[in-house]
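Consider this one:
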Amino acid sequence: MPVSERFLALVGFQLGQFIDCPEVRSLVVYVTQQGETGQPSLLPVGHWPPDERALPSLDNVSRLRVPVEQRRWLPLSDGQRLLGALQVEAARNPWPEPLAQRLQAVALALTEALRLDLEGGELRQRLTQREEQLGLLLHQLRNPLTALRTFGQLLLRRLGPDHHDRSLVQGLLAEERQINRYVEAISELVHPEGRIAASVSPQPLLLPPLLSGPQGQPLAGLLEPLLQRAAATATLQGRDWQGPETLPDWSGDSGSVAEILANLLENAFRYSPQGSAVGLHWATDEQRLHLTVWDGGPAIAAAEREAIFGRGVRGSRGQDLPGTGLGLALGRDLARSLGGELELVVPPQTLAEELPPQGNAFRLSLPRPPASAPRR
């Protein structure tokens, strides 16, 4: 329904006042809606007298749009924009002046109410989209902040307690913690409940263009820092990290691919049990490049393996951990926008013999680039 319940209640009140007018046989309020072909149609949203009849939508060729002796139309217009119409069927024509004035007053009231209702709906939709985009950017901002903290902690270990530069690294870590507090405060303002609810918007959950391009960028250059970050995180957590010996020579929207892999690696380190191995594996076939982030922890429950790709949805093992449930939803939307796919495969050894027989593997499949030698 393109209008709110409050507007429908107003329609019922305005039309119901004609119960004392026996010359008025029926009233129907329509609102303008764009059809599948792009041509506007009139959608009925209320009628009087109330009954169980189903009123059809009216397109440009409908005979009901043509005025006849007992049927007239009062437009609900905002300047040159037709918002809707009030259809009146009366026993007398022309209308008595008092009746004409009442009908015109109702049409004006409905026009103003409909204009405000549509504007309010557009503003709410725009606000929801901006909140989702802001939540997405906050979610992505946590990955580089985590990387700064990880590298800083490793550097602090290497410097030793008496190194003269130790205070500089401690200052950097303190600033990272402060920035992270700002991020959490903004996140709380956007989504006080701590996570983003599943969206009903049909729009994909994609990154802004400035974060996804440029086209034709080599993937290897963006993979190297991700692998360094993953190795550093594994060292701090006491895990076994298994990265690839070579990097694929793939070019395209590498920024989006790197964002997907960064989210997958973050999830692997966050949600798999302490001590379980994590790794990145890649392979190609005749048509596609396959990049797989895997962990050696317990397999995700079969009932959750598809649901976790929804917006704001997390598996049962992650309910008590911080997060918004956006990473997999973003990853799948980005993968499909690149002509690829993101899927969960259990166990990882299903994809390659060298992968563990237990755990979870998130495989990103992309259209294969022209053949060339892999990069070490």
In short: Residues 130-190 form one domain. The first strand starts at residue 24 and ends at 34. The chain has three domains: 5-123, 130-190, 209-367. Residues 196-202, 371-376 have pLDDT under 50 and may be disordered.
